[in-house]
Design brief:
single chain; Rossmann fold; three-stranded parallel β-sheet; globular
Length: 292
């Protein structure tokens, strides 16, 4: 078993991004500018936005954060989105999810200028991705592709199972791996909560991408020997033996599955760092497009 170190791979990608940012600056083009909009005080979202801000600075990308109270209404958030759409100093921005329940997520995402949608959630970017046209690709799937490339995981002709059909990870991941590309040409099965005989399907998979949102869902008896395991999930599980009273785990029962896997991502330190690096890559792409 070999760990797929997302921290190391993300540092490699960030060095590539930093070199590209330096070239822009040397050409008298301003540094890319990424904005994050955070509504409310969700601890996980705050931590994530802070990580994105720190990572941006590390590669020379300008980073700004709008922190709004949880009581912010939908129109106020839409007004900010429209302002950022028009701000020529901003190359890309994200509205951190989840949003408070009184705000319609789809309405907010649809209001973002797709050219600045570095999360890759806008229907225009999703549609372009499906058609194989240049687009902002969702950061987590894009990060996973880079991780597979870094570790030279062969996908061509392989049997891939994606657990979870979210618009953020599962669905785009299934499309990207099935299309004709360097990291692609796979035969992909997309599974979800209604899939019958799930274990029989996963036991045939060469690669499993677990993004089903349930702690330690994927067990050793669901995996064949030598499979590649990508764990997208991250959960806090109560654990009185830990100083903080909890431990972090993914959608994979790591200790038992790792014994059968050829490659596996840890949680934390696997997919998470790749998501942030891919977001910076999208910001760089938006800046380049903006400079044309």
């Amino acid at each position: 078993m070999k760990l797929m170190d997302g921290k190391a791979a993300s540092e490699k990608l960030k060095k590539e991004i930093a070199a590209e940012v330096a070239k822009l600056i040397d050409a008298d083009i301003k540094a890319p500018h990424l904005v994050a909009v955070l509504v409310g005080d969700d601890p996980a979202s705050q931590t994530y936005v802070n990580s994105k801000e720190k990572a941006s600075h590390s590669v020379g990308i300008t980073s700004s954060v709008y922190r709004l109270p949880a009581k912010t209404n939908e129109q106020e958030l839409l007004d900010l989105v429209h302002f950022l759409n028009k701000d020529e100093e901003v190359d890309g921005f994200i509205v951190q999810l989840p949003l408070p329940k009184h705000i319609n997520v789809e309405r907010i995402i649809n209001a973002i200028d797709y050219r600045k949608d570095v999360d890759g959630f806008h229907p225009m970017n999703v549609g372009k991705m499906v058609l194989g046209e240049p687009a902002m690709i969702s950061a987590t799937p894009q990060g996973i592709l880079y991780l597979l490339k870094t570790y030279k995981i062969q996908t061509k002709g392989k049997n891939v199972v994606v657990l979870g059909r979210s618009n953020i990870v599962g669905t785009p991941m299934s499309i990207l791996l099935s299309r004709k590309a360097e990291i692609g040409d796979a035969t992909v099965t997309l599974c979800h909560s209604r899939t019958e005989n799930l274990s029989k399907i996963t036991q045939k998979a060469d690669i499993i991408i677990a993004a089903i949102g349930q702690p330690e869902f994927l067990k050793a008896d669901m995996v064949k020997e030598g499979a590649v395991i990508i764990d997208v999930g991250i959960h806090r599980v109560d654990d009185t033996t830990k100083e903080k009273g909890y431990r972090l785990t993914g959608d994979v029962a790591f200790d038992e599955v790792a014994k059968k896997a050829s490659f596996i991502t840890p949680v934390p330190g696997g997919v998470g760092p790749m998501t942030i690096a891919a977001l910076l890559q999208n910001t760089l792409l938006a800046a380049k497009n903006n400079a044309k």
